[in-house]
Amino acid sequence: MNADARIERTLPRQTTQLDPSLALFAELIGLFQMHRGASLAALGGVESLHKHAASLYPQIDTLIAKISDQAIQTDPMQWTLITGEWENTRRYWRQDNALSNFEIHNFLIEQCHRMLWRYVESQASPSHKDIEEFLFRDIPSHIEGLGQLRGLSSYASTQSSEPTIVNSCNPRVTQLSKQAHLTLVETQRQLIKLAEREERTRLMPVLQARIRLTGQFLQCVQDQLTPRTKPIPQPEKIFHLGTLAIEANQEIWAGLAASRYKPFTQN
């Protein structure tokens, strides 16, 4: 499956109903996560995903420019750290081994999540702290776990991956896969509970798609970990299924965040 056949969305259309700065922060995180996955597969020799990683740069540059003023107001030191880390990652990732590239991206994305949470804390109503914790910490953590799994498993399934690195990756892939299964079930329960009664009918197809697409991705990863026959390298398929799973999670998140996140001010 050619990863260039479609440019995957990082966030669905529902984000247009979100606070603009929040939507842009979330979209930037999604692009960094996608760059991690594409660059890891590229380090394993997948040329189509090397091109895909490069195609993300203009989108990321545009988002950084749009976010910059609000980010500086929210936390100037944190924003400086994020933009500096991204420039180094962008410039040097081809020189890193896969595990270094993975951890460097993880650090960058962790800093973005911290920035996102600080922005939410500065804007949201303190009377809905539990909802905000779930929407802006628990769900992003689940999506980040899927993003890490997409990246590592895409690399581990490439033909040019280094055996010693793959041996180091596989226990992490197994751990991430098990954790994703657990958090998928728990967050699904909470998402259904969070949705208002009238929303459930509308959201149920999206919730079902989230389970189905995430399950397909996790099954593909599991098949690669425990093959019955010699595994056929399929990094592009893993990357694609991982992206579909992440998009399904982002879609339900965006829909609920738009209706539940009530900032004091609209920027």
- Terminal CA distance: 41 Å
Mean pLDDT: 86
Main β sheet profile: none
Total number of helices:
9
Helix content: over 70%
| Binned strand content | under 5%
Low-confidence stretches: 1-16
Structural class: mainly alpha
Shape: globular
Radius of gyration: 18 Å
Compose a concise summary of this entry.
The chain is mainly α. The chain has one domain. Helix content is 78%, strand content 0%.
Task: Output the keywords.
single chain, 267 residues, mainly alpha, 9 helices, 78% helix, disordered N terminus
Architecture overview:
The chain is an all-alpha fold. It has one domain (17-260). 78% of the residues lie in helices and 0% in strands. It is built from 9 helices and no strands. It has helices spanning 20-43, 47-55, 57-74, 76-92, 98-123, 129-156, 163-194, 197-225, 235-260. Helix 3 (57-74) runs antiparallel to helix 4 and helix 6 runs antiparallel to helix 7 (163-194). The chain is globular and about 55 Å long. Residues 1-16 have low confidence and may be disordered.
SSE topology:
Layout: H1 20-43, H2 47-55, H3 57-74, H4 76-92, H5 98-123, H6 129-156, H7 163-194, H8 197-225, H9 235-260
